[in-house]
Amino acid sequence: MNSMTKYCIIIATIFLTVFFSDANAQNAPSRLTLQQAVDIALKNNIQVKQSSLRLETAEINSKQARADMLPNLNGNFNYGWNNGRNIDPFTNTYVNQQIQGSNISVSGQWNLFNGLQVHNNKKQQALSEEASKMDLQQIKDNTTLLVMMNYLQVLNNEDLLQNVKNQAEVTSKQVERLDIMVKEGSVGMYLLADMKGQLSNDNVGIVNAANSLELAKLNLCQLLNIPFNKDLQLERNDVPMPTGIYPGKEDEIIKTALDNLALIKASDLRIQSAEKGIKVEQASYYPIVGLYGNLFSNYSSAASLNTPTTIVDQPTNDYVLINNIKNPVITPVQNYTSENIKYANQMKNNVGSSFGVGAQIPLFNNFRTRFRVAQAKVNLKTAEVERENTELQLRQNIEQAYANMTASFNRYKAYLDQYTNYQESFRAYEIRFNAGTINSVEYLTAKNNFDRATINLTQVRYEYIFRTKILDYYQGKLVL
Q1: What angle do CA 295, 301, 304 make, to 5 degrees?
Q2: Cβ proximity of 437 and 450 under 8 Å
C-alpha cells in the first residue's frame, strides 16, 4: 500500500466519522418539553411496540372469531388424463382407452349448532382483545412514569449543579477579597490558603455535579431511544412545594387504583376470557348440526353425440326354414355419425346439485374433550391466582409509595427548617468574617452547613414531587 492510498483512507475515515457524528447530532433534539419526551418514548419504546403487535394479533383473532359464524364456500376444479381400463364418467361403463376428464364443483356448509362453541369463542377473543388494550395502556403508563422520573432527575441535577456553582462563586469572591487584604497586610496568608482550599472543594463539587447531570441526560436519551446529546435542554415547569401533605388517604388511593388501573382491568378481563374458554371446550360434548349444499358438473373426452343417417339391410347369422331350406334373416341397421361433445356443452348439460342437513355426533375421542375442559379450568384458576397476586402487589406498592411520600414530606419540612436556620446563620457569620471578628474555620463551617442544607432541600423537593406523581399514577390522573 503506497502513501497516497493510505492518505485517501485516512481522509475517507475522517469524513465518514464527521458525517455520521453530524447525522446523529441532527437526529438528536436540542430541546425537549416533558410532553415531547413522553411522546418520543411511546413512539420508540420497544416494549410499547411489542405490546402494540400483541394487540394487533388479538384484534385479528377477534375478527376471525366473528367471521367463524359465517358459512364457508369452496370451489373445486380438476382436469386430467386416464390411461388403460377406466370408467367412462359420461356412460359409467368400462372402456380401455385414454380418457380426458374434468370435474368442477362448488360446495358450502353452514353450522347451525355446535354447542355454542363459535359464539363463546367470539366472546373469549373479544375479551382477550380488551385485555391486550389494557396491557398496552399499562405499558404506556409505566413508560410515561419512567420518563417523568428521568426528566425530573435531569432537572434535579441541573439545580444541584447551579447550587454548587453559586457556592463556588461565593467562595471565589472571598478569595478575591482575601487576596487583596493579604497584599495590603491586613490579614494573614493562612486565611487565603483556607479559602482557596474551599474553592478547590467547590470546583470538585462542580465537576461531580456536571458528571451527574451528563449521566442523567444519558439515561433519559437512552430511555427515549434517541442519540445522546450532552447539550440537551429541558423545559422547566417548576412545581411549587405544597403547604400540606399530599391529599387523599391510603385506603382511598388503593380503592381507586383497583377500580381504574389498567393492570387490574386486564387481569379481570383475562378471568372472564378463561371462563369463556371453558365453555368453548365444553361445546365439543355436543353434536354439530349444519346445512350443506353442492353444485357440480363434469366432462369426459369419451362422450360423443350420435346422429342417425341412413338405414341399410344387413344379413345376420339367423335363418328361417322354408320348405326345409335355410333362408337368411336380414335386419335393418341404423347408421349414425359420431361427434365429440364440446367441453362447455358437457359442463352445461351435466350440472347436478345436492343439499341437506347433516349432524356429527361425538361418541369417543380418546377423552380429548374431557382433558381440554380440565385444562381450561386450570387456566381459569391460574388467571384468578394472577389476579389475586396483581392486587396484592398493587396494594403493597401503594402502601410503600404512600409511606415514601409521607417520609419525603417530613424530610422536606425538616430540611426547610434546616435551610432557613443555616441561611440566617451563614448570613451572620459572613458579616462577622468580613468584619474580621471570626476566623476562616468558623466561616467555612457555617458555609458548608448552609451548602449542604441547600443541596438537601433541592433533592428532597424533587423526591417529593416524584412520590406524588406515583400516587397520581395509581389513581389514573397522571398529569404531565
Answers
A1: 95
A2: no
pTM of the shown model: 0.77
Q: Assign 245 to helix, strand or coil.
A: coil
Tell me the pLDDT band of 10, cut-offs 50, 70 and 90. very low
Could you tell me if 118 and 289 are in contact, meaning their C-beta atoms sit under 8 angstroms apart? Answer: no
Residues 6+ apart with CB under 8 A from 452: none
Mean pLDDT of 199-208: 93
pLDDT at 20: 39
Mean pLDDT of 304-327: 80
Residues in contact with 45: Cβ distance below 8 Å, sequence separation at least 6, in sequence order: 139, 143, 225
Those residues whose C-beta lies under 8 Å from the C-beta of residue 293, and which sit 6 or more positions away, are: 107, 108, 109, 353, 354, 355, 356
C-alpha cell at 467: 412520590
**Closest alpha carbon to 470 in 416, 415, 417, 394:** 394
Stretch 235-247: mean pLDDT, rounded? 77
For the stretch 91-150, pLDDT in tens is: 667 777 777 888 999 999 998 888 888 999 999 999 999 999 999 999 999 999 999 999
d(CA 147, CA 141): 10
Other beta carbons within 10 angstroms of residue 344's beta carbon come to: 9
The SS3 of residue 351 is coil
DSSP 8-state code for residue 283: G
Q: Is pLDDT of 41 > 90?
A: yes
Residue 342 DSSP one-character state = P
Q: Where are the domains of the chain?
A: 1-32
Handedness of CA 297, 302, 308, 313 (dihedral sign): negative
Burial class of residue 341 in the structure, from the number of CB atoms within 10 Å of its CB (0-12 exposed, 13-18 middle, 19+ buried):
middle
Query: What's the rounded Cα separation, in Å, for the pair 5 and 384?
Result: 70
Q: Helix or strand or coil: residue 87?
A: strand
